[in-house]
Design brief:
Layout (H helix, E strand, L loop, with lengths): L4 H5 L29 H5 L8 E2 L5 E8 L9 E9 L9 E6 L7 H8 L8 H6 E6 L16 H9 L11 H18 L9 H15 L4 E6 L1 H12 L4 E7 L4 H5 L9 H4 L2 H19 L10 H14 L2 E3 L2 E3 L1 H8 L8 H13 L9 H12 L23 H12 L6 H14 L6 H4 L26 E8 L5 H10 L3 E9 L2 H4 L3 H13 L8 E3 L7
Parallel strand pairs: 4-5, 4-6, 6-7, 7-10, 10-11, 11-12
Antiparallel strand pairs: 1-2, 2-3, 3-5, 8-9
Helix pairs in contact: 7-8, 12-14
Length: 540
């Protein structure tokens, strides 16, 4: 729920009701047949795909699907697709659809970048399957949601976006910027927003499955992609072949839980506890690595507390940047990819070394403050204050697409005071990191109500067995949420990777790749309670 916003969220810091036509009945009474499928998707024709070479062994195509499945005749949109054909055609099994998470990242670009990562897709897996990914609706090259007149306005808006508020006094400009983004999206993408839910993306996925000629879906969903996989399994239960949910979540909690309705998405998912556990696992790995980790000297836990004490009093000036409490906590929470931990450790050591220096605002900081005050001008539809001309379009709409999907999929509190109160109580519950789960999807509090359309179940329609993989310490999809999501499904097996980081895309484990491969190729599930080690210390 993909980084970025956590689960693919926190874009600021690195950077109504879903219609289900089948009537819910007790799970034991529902056979896993095509009698229980989403009728809106079934009524739409499968796209005709024309694959063409697009360099480096990849093929590309465009799939035309309805924008509004309830009124398919009104408007169609094009979805950008990419395929890496099976390396051994004689032994080819079929198509492995891959969603890399986000939501909002280009699946086309990520497959290009990651198809040959051996810890994600082994030679044997690539020999047996066509790997296929796509830009989901609203993303990159698939009817992109754009909330700014041009690239200049977009880039300046996010470059000057206020940091996560570390104190109550910093909340008003943060709230204002979040509202400006929501208002701008409502103005500029009003035709798209009501159709951006994952329920519609699941319908798209079934059309893509039909288009490639597979009778059943074989699928690897990562992070947000696990939510898409869970929806597909319950909307098309008889069409589930083998599905891997990797870096998974509590699916009901992501959408709406009546018992937990007054908390935002990642507070419901307890992402703060996942971040804290991963941060302390990172410090343990740092100590174990010794001199290979820049933050290892002395006691890293005590050094971290000294940094927090300093930035609670006043920010630290370093390299033209202002490191206040919110900025430092958000930076420390960037833990999804252990390959980035050495840089984080070096940053923490620099902040520790500067803990006794006076705070001196720089010209760069002063200029940034001026730009921040101009951000609200974007909401008027005019970008002149930030230099926009309206003439240069842009392809990277990750943050806008993230909110277009996440806010459609989830009901959240809409009262700013609730977020302010939760920031205090969550930081008491999970020191330092509690507020990250409160503020990371703040824009959803202002999202137009007409575009909020979460899928509300059922979640437990009988399907073929599903494999769920999750790290012991995951900062984006905590293990407790993955276990809850697996329990919500009718038949799921959980494999725990004994490491820290987000999903097997980032947590390298030869063991977990082998387990995934055996399941996808032969249908063999790991034993109940099975675990996998990771491949070494990230600081080595």
């Amino acid at each position: 729920m993909s980084s970025s916003p956590v689960r693919g969220r926190m874009a600021w810091w690195a950077a109504i009701f879903g219609l289900l036509l089948a009537v819910p009945v007790p799970a034991a009474a529902v056979p896993a047949t095509d009698s229980y499928v989403d009728a809106l998707a079934d009524a739409a024709p499968a796209p005709a795909l024309q694959w063409t070479d697009c360099d480096s062994g990849f093929s590309c195509a465009t799939a035309r699907v309805p924008l509004d499945y309830a009124h398919p005749e009104v408007r169609s949109i094009d979805l950008a697709m990419i395929k890496l054909p099976a390396a051994d055609p004689a032994r080819r099994i079929g198509t492995l659809f891959v969603n890399f998470g986000g939501p909002g990242r280009s699946g086309v670009q990520r497959l290009r970048e990651r198809a040959h990562w051996p810890w994600l897709f082994s030679d044997e897996l690539r020999a047996r399957f066509d790997l296929v990914s796509w830009d989901t609706r609203g993303v990159a090259n698939s009817a992109p949601v754009r909330c700014f007149p041009d690239a200049t306005a977009q880039q300046l808006f996010f470059a000057t976006y206020p940091a996560m508020p570390g104190t109550p006094g910093m909340e008003p400009p943060f709230f204002a910027a979040a509202k400006t983004l929501a208002d701008n999206c409502a103005q500029r993408a009003a035709d798209l927003l009501p159709h951006m839910s994952t329920e519609n993306t699941a319908r798209d996925l079934d059309l893509l499955r039909r288009a490639v000629g597979d009778d059943k879906l074989t699928y690897h969903g990562i992070s947000y992609g696990t939510y898409l996989g869970a929806l597909y399994a319950n909307m098309f239960p008889g069409r589930v072949g083998r599905i891997v949910l990797d870096g998974s979540m509590d699916f009901r909690g992501n959408a709406f839980d009546p018992d937990d309705a007054d908390r935002p998405i990642d507070t419901r998912q307890d992402v703060a506890t996942g971040i804290a556990g991963t941060f302390h696992a990172m410090l343990d790995a740092c100590v174990a690595a010794g001199p290979e980790c820049a933050f290892s000297e002395g006691n890293p836990q005590e050094k971290w507390q000294r940094i927090l004490e300093r930035v609670r009093r006043e920010p630290i000036s370093w390299d033209g940047k202002r490191y206040d409490y919110g900025t430092v906590v958000a930076a420390a929470g960037q833990l999804s990819d252990p390959a980035g931990w050495p840089v984080l450790a070096a940053t923490l050591q620099h902040l520790y070394d500067l803990r006794d220096t006076p705070y001196l605002p720089t010209d760069v900081l002063a200029e940034t403050a001026v730009l921040v005050r101009q951000v609200a001008d974007i909401g008027t539809g005019s970008s002149t204050a930030l230099g926009g001309t309206g003439t240069n379009t842009y392809d990277d709409n990750y943050t806008e697409a993230f909110y277009a999907v996440q806010c459609a999929d989830s009901r959240v509190p809409r009262d700013e005071r609730r977020y302010s109160d939760l920031a205090v109580s969550e930081d008491q519950r999970v020191p330092a990191f509690g507020r990250l789960g409160v503020f990371d999807a703040m824009t959803c509090a202002y999202w137009p109500q007409t575009a909020v359309r979460p899928y509300l179940g059922p979640w437990d329609r009988p399907t073929a067995p599903i494999l769920v993989i999750n790290s012991r310490n995951d900062p984006a999809t905590p293990l407790a949420g993955a276990a809850a999501g697996a329990a919500e499904l009718s038949d799921a097996r959980l494999l725990v990777v004994e490491g820290a980081g987000h999903s097997s895309m980032y947590v390298r484990s030869t063991c977990s790749e082998a387990a995934k491969r055996d399941y996808l190729i032969a249908g063999t599930l790991p034993a109940d309670g099975a675990t996998c080690p990771i491949d070494g210390n990230p600081f080595d």
